[in-house]
Specification:
- By secondary structure, the chain is α/β, with parallel strands linked by helices.
- The protein has one domain: Aminopeptidase (3-Layer(aba) Sandwich).
- Helix content is 31%, strand content 21%.
- The strands form two sheets. The protein has a seven-stranded mixed beta sheet, sandwiched between helices. The chain has a two-stranded antiparallel ribbon with strand order 5-6.
- It is globular and about 65 Å long.
Length: 263
């Protein structure tokens, strides 16, 4: 039993015609090679104004060429590391931890390993920011895939904290990131559908950026699928969000989290 299969629109229309004619029997063939591998998280740090921290992450592995998922996310994290490395430590809001985790296709194994290894330090995390998938919206035309000219709708999973929600909204507006939705972390389930999701289950305040185009799990996720026009404004938005945590302690953030009742 499998939970779902991606097919294109024209094949879907053909299947609907078959189903409309009555009972249909088909065969699905899946060929795969399985073997054990060892993969590693990549972690870097920059000291900041205090020893509380902001984690900035994404996953570094993918199943195909995986340009959107997740070379674009890696690029967004590296852009943050580059920017903040040029800012004097005293002007960085907190200690900054950059995480490129492994094991995305193995249930987010790298994130879970990081959380387990650093569990005693999580109380000092002010905010966890995950950046994944700067994606072109792709549509099917005449049996082929073409860019619509728009970015894929952007999801910003944001903890239910009024100051954090306001910060994210201001960043989206300032950088003109149209087609953005601010969503609660549990809108689709117990955690965001990003590799940062387990941090939510661990009790961390977070902002997780994600898009979910249909081609992520397909060999068609090539460089032309990256919405390159989004890379700079997304980077600036993330800088704004991280910088806004200046003067905000992890303890104060958790107090506001604890005092806010679920909707």
């Amino acid at each position: 039993m499998i939970p779902g299969v991606w097919i294109n629109g024209s094949d879907g229309a053909r299947l609907r015609r078959y189903f409309g004619a009555g009972r249909v029997q088909g065969t699905l063939v899946n060929r795969a090679i399985r073997h054990d591998i060892t993969s590693y998280n990549v972690v870097g740090e920059l000291p900041g104004a205090d020893d509380d921290s902001v984690i900035v992450g994404s996953h570094h592995d993918g199943p195909w060429a995986s340009a959107v998922e997740d070379a674009s996310g890696v690029a967004l994290v590296l852009a943050q590391a580059t920017y903040w490395s040029r800012i004097p430590p005293a002007q960085r809001p907190h200690r900054l931890v950059f995480l490129l985790n492994a094991g995305h296709m193995a249930g987010g194994a790298g994130v879970h390993a990081f959380i387990d290894r650093h569990r005693k330090e999580l109380d000092r995390v002010v905010l966890e920011v995950h950046l994944e998938h700067a994606a072109n919206e792709i549509v099917e035309r005449d049996g082929g895939l073409v860019a619509s000219g728009d970015p894929e709708p952007r999801w910003w999973f944001t903890s239910r904290l009024a100051p954090v929600e306001a910060i994210v909204r201001e960043a989206i507006v300032a950088e003109q990131l149209e087609r953005s939705l601010i969503l609660p972390p549990d809108v689709f389930g117990p955690m965001p559908t990003s590799d940062g999701g387990p941090f939510h289950l661990a009790g961390l305040p977070l902002v997780n950026f994600l898009t979910a185009p249909f081609y992520l799990y397909d060999a068609s996720d090539t460089l032309d699928k990256i919405h390159r026009q989004s890379l700079v404004p997304l980077t600036r938005a993330a800088i704004r969000i991280i910088a806004s945590t200046h003067g905000m302690s992890a303890a104060a953030m958790r107090e506001s989290t604890a005092s806010r009742s679920p909707r």
